[in-house]
Design goal:
single chain, 496 residues, mainly alpha, 3% strand, flat
Length: 496
């Protein structure tokens, strides 16, 4: 029974709260402390909440419901800032149930080369906490590695406790581990802005009304990073300018491709998105306050078509409107097709994406049908390696079919079919063992553990783990191996 449990301070992380509990109870044994706090797991999650005991949960929900406690004392709000509403709610349900399935929804922290994993602190916040509460504690925002400044005091965060790589976490209370004489250092303007954006997201419970990529595209209109009529993104130019703006920052968006994915709505990692928002000076209020986004190219298209109807050539239109001739040609071509009844709307560009999706579905169905015919026709008869997706991909190259993990994302039927042919390690070992025993018998050599291991390179433990699969595959081989594993005499079965 827990006789003492501290009341959480504002913005305090669970890690900090549990560390204060350990000090208050005088629990110097990390193992014993974690046994008091957790059901099964032997460590405290740094950023969220893991398997706590019912008693600890009851103490945490004395005056608030469980989901509110999670929102106020974890980085949940921050990490789910740009997720769709349904995913955000589902992640919260998983966290409330202490189900690690939340990790499949919430984007993980990116790993940066040369960056150590420290819990940081603001010296001015620490001083204020000691004056107000009598002790320092770890704030949630200090747990986020990419935040380097205090949004409130505009000073750099200092490295506090370093968490080791082995995940053998010890509970390190802030009051014990933060010195009292740390002098604050003024932070730069960009770090301040990033910290301010992150703070707003940490305390934001709203959801996006419009997908972020549409908001970003709207903001890009009229900039040098997008064509004036066609809407083509100039990722390389934006990437170069971001690098120049952030000046070789270790926490910069790691690859040009990731920047492209952010602008196309494929990445919801908050810190990388914040970098883009800060660069374009898009406030958080605008991101969440935008209720609708119209077609940004309708006016431009209408203008081009109007001039085209007056008899101006495409080259003259491009010159007059300061557009590329290629874009003007594309829009005029669509107009002429519309006049012939081949298109419904000039601005109906999303239909291109719909058409692509239909083509992919058709390709997926046809290819899955072809793959089934191939793989049902002695495809695996000479397979000596373990049947995995990768090994199937390699063999399919001989049939002129080139697939990989990435291509499977757009071919769900093919993916399901290929996975259905994959085998477990136990099944693969059983296949090797059956073949090895049969080969030994054909050579009229005594069947021994040594002979089997020499041919299969399998340990005695793996042989034992494969027995059930062997029994399903070949009862005779199973009986022979069963004798080998149970007799003291290494020579168990000899072919006469």
């Amino acid at each position: 029974m827990i006789t003492y449990f501290p009341t959480p301070y504002p913005d305090e992380s669970f890690y900090s709260l549990f560390a204060r509990y350990a000090v208050g109870e005088g629990l110097f044994s990390v193992r014993y402390c974690n046994e008091k706090l957790h059901n099964k797991q032997s460590y405290t999650d740094m950023n969220y909440i893991n398997d706590i005991t019912p008693e600890v949960k009851r103490l945490l929900t004395r005056d608030k419901d469980w989901k509110t406690v999670i929102k106020e004392h974890t980085i949940y709000n921050y990490m789910t800032s740009f997720l769709p509403a349904d995913q955000k709610e589902r992640a919260l349900e998983y966290l409330a149930q202490v189900d690690e399935l939340y990790k499949k929804i919430i984007p993980p922290f990116p790993k940066y080369e040369g960056v150590t994993n420290h819990i940081k602190y603001c010296p001015i916040c620490v001083k204020e906490d000691r004056e107000k509460y009598g002790e320092a504690y770890w704030h949630r925002e200090w747990m986020i590695p990419e935040i380097r400044a205090c949004y409130k005091h505009h000073c750099y965060l200092y490295d506090g406790v370093e968490m080791n790589a082995t995940n053998e976490q010890i509970l390190c209370p802030a009051e014990v581990n933060i010195p009292a004489d740390t002098e604050p250092q003024r932070s730069d303007a960009i770090s301040d802005q990033i910290a301010s954006y992150a703070h707003e997201l940490m305390n934001n419970e709203h959801t996006l009304q419009v997908p972020l990529e549409k908001i970003l595209m709207q903001e890009l209109i009229g900039t040098e990073y997008i064509s004036k009529a066609g809407g083509k993104l100039k990722i390389k130019r934006l990437w170069d300018d971001l690098i120049s703006f952030y000046n070789e920052d270790a926490f910069l968006i790691r690859r040009q491709r990731r920047l492209s994915d952010i602008l196309h709505g494929k990445i919801q990692a908050p810190f990388e998105i914040i970098r883009v928002l800060v660069y374009f000076q898009i406030p958080i209020e605008k991101v969440y306050g935008t209720k609708s986004v119209g077609d940004p190219y309708k006016e431009s298209c209408d203008q081009i078509i109007h001039l085209y109807k007056t008899g101006m050539s495409q080259t003259q239109i491009a010159k007059k409107l300061n557009l590329s001739r290629r874009n003007v040609e594309w829009i005029c071509t669509r107009y002429m097709k519309e006049q012939r009844g081949e298109l419904i709307k000039i601005q109906d560009r999303p239909n291109n994406q719909k058409h692509k999706q239909e083509e992919l579905r058709r390709k997926d169905t046809d290819l899955a049908r072809r793959l089934k015919i191939i793989m049902d026709d002695d495809f695996f008869s000479d397979f000596e390696e373990c049947i995995t997706c990768e090994s199937i991909f390699r063999k399919l190259e001989a049939y002129g079919i080139f697939l990989n993990r990435n291509s499977m994302r757009s071919l769900p039927k093919c993916d399901t079919l290929i996975r259905s042919y994959c085998e477990s390690y136990e099944h693969y070992w059983a296949r090797k063992l059956c073949r090895a025993v049969n080969e030994i018998e054909e050579e009229h050599v005594g069947v021994t553990i040594g002979q089997i291991q020499k041919r299969t390179f399998l340990s005695r433990d793996r042989i034992g783990r494969s027995m059930e699969e062997i029994r399903k595959r070949d009862v005779e081989v199973w009986e022979k191996l069963n004798l080998i594993l149970n007799r003291e005499n290494p020579i168990v079965y000899t072919v006469k």
